[in-house]
Amino acid sequence: MRNEQLPFAITLEPGTSLLNHTGSWRTSRPVYLDRLPPCNAGCPAGENIQAWLFHAEEGDYRMAWETIMQDNPFPAIHGRVCYHPCETKCNRGKLDTSVNIHAVERFLGDLAISAGWMPRMAQPTGKRVLVVGSGPCGLSAAYHLARLGHAVTVYDAGEKPGGMMRYGIPKYRLPRDVLDAEVNRIQRMGVRFEQNSRVDDLDKLLREHHFDAVFLGVGAGVSKKVNIPSVHAGKVLDALKVLHDVEVAPQAPPMIGRRVAVYGGGNTAMDVARTAVRLGAEDVVIVYRRDRKKMPAHAFEVAEAEEEGVKIKWLSTITQVGDGKITVEKMKLNEKGWPEPTGEYEELDADSVILAIGQDAETEFLRKVPGLTFANDGSLEVDEQLMTARPGLFAGGDMTLGDRTVTRGVGNGKRGAKCVDAFLRGERYVAPPKHEVADFDKLNTWYYTDAPQHVQERLSRIRRLDSFDEVNQGLDEQTAMEESRRCLSCGNCFECDNCYGVCPDNAVIKLGPGKRFEFNYDYCKGCGLCVEECPCGAIKMVEEEI
Known about the structure:
Elements: H1 16-19, E1 28-32, H2 38-41, H3 49-57, H4 61-69, H5 75-81, H6 85-89, H7 92-95, H8 101-115, E2 128-132, H9 136-147, E3 151-155, H10 164-167, H11 176-188, E4 192-194, H12 202-209, E5 213-216, E6 222-223, E7 236-238, H13 239-248, E8 259-263, H14 267-278, E9 283-287, H15 299-307, E10 311-313, E11 316-321, E12 325-333, E13 339-349, E14 352-355, E15 359-360, E16 393-395, H16 406-424, H17 461-464, H18 477-484, H19 498-502, E17 508-510, E18 517-519, H20 529-533, E19 539-543
Parallel strand pairs: 2-3, 2-5, 3-4, 5-16, 7-14, 8-9, 8-14, 9-10
Antiparallel strand pairs: 1-19, 6-15, 11-12, 12-13, 17-18
């Protein structure tokens, strides 16, 4: 009669395996490991995405949120404005469609706001840290430093905290109640905010307040200039200025006219073009000197802009701004993909031109600080600890990074906080080693059932044209849980019992819920069947040491 204590798939009694230490026959052995999920590897904020999705699919939303908060203080914000490179890397996308990670993160962030959850904090250290800038990077650094027990004061030139999240991202992408809620949480953690406090003399500020360390996280709030001959200079506007004015004075928005041309091809160009539509412009065209393949704006931003009636004129550059018209020269791409003039011109109707050709960080105030060095592009030079040439003075975000996104700024602020914390303890921060990535070919995807992605609803086109209401809607609890369950748990054991059930030698030992398994190498013959049948690639074979 069959032994009911054995796994279902085992049909033979132990026999020779348990009578003899048959593990001596092996030339290789299986080992359990945690590979790095590609979503985790692709997250600029360094989130443990697979871990918090696991908690979410179990319905433990508080633990899922706390897992996010170990790396990112803004899940409700990131669930809206992050360009989710994690989803581009998601292995599920090779099976059917990627997990809608940002939508689940948004659900958890919104739930935390409504429930009033607060993160756990360490005991006070007695150390005082100054953070300059309240954008994504500065706020992230302030949050993580506060969690580590340090007293943090943030100085910022803006009227309200948030930096470019407030003054550069329109409300239809990031509602201000969401932004305020996540910033206010940091304030409730004890972080002091000094708004309307531009730092012009850093040395004087440090002498007066005796901070133990400084982190500079000033954002890219200075627009790049371009020399375009203009008959009416007042018709040429700055994209960041337009977005700022819409934020601070919504009842008196900038006068842009009925026909608007936006010069640029990045996400700011998309934001200001879509803002122009909402301000009443009837004809909005984006003029970009390269083609779609070279356009830095993200595809979904472009698609949503076109849905709202924004037109895009590819391979074109503005050469002159006249009275109600602009002159555009057609371009062509050379063999290296760079645009070259063709000598062909045309005129377009335009009451105003909005320039959106890039931004730089405001670093002029640092030129007065002795010992600091700057790269040729104007960025502040820092070492691997994000420390400048001046001990105790750290910098990150747009002041040092080339890729300027909210998520990368948040990740850089976290790293900066860890480096500052190590400095205050007389140490150097050493990042933990990363596991090998769990690529798609390491999975056994036939174990997973088909499950279509839950797509977020969007505000109708008609309702978008005359309001700044949020365009993309969120998931409810049911759809958020179902979406999180689409995760393949790449590289991380989720205790499916496959290895336990298929082992012909009964050499897999269950350690109990949440404790996973271990191998009994006295009886494992190294057949590799467990590796072949592990759905998530959490086991590999290694050569036996003889």
